[in-house]
């Protein structure tokens, strides 16, 4: 019984860790895109 509980906690920890890593990666990409958009020089369109 103890071995099954230990495996369960390891799986829960692995899922949480994977979720946190994906969340961090997602936000890192969003923040990077926001910085790139802000640093782009504004150009006027000539009609």
From TrEMBL:
The record lists the lineage as: Bacteria, Pseudomonadati, Bacteroidota, Bacteroidia, Bacteroidales
**Which organism is the protein's source?**
Phocaeicola sartorii
Protein's recorded name = Uncharacterized protein
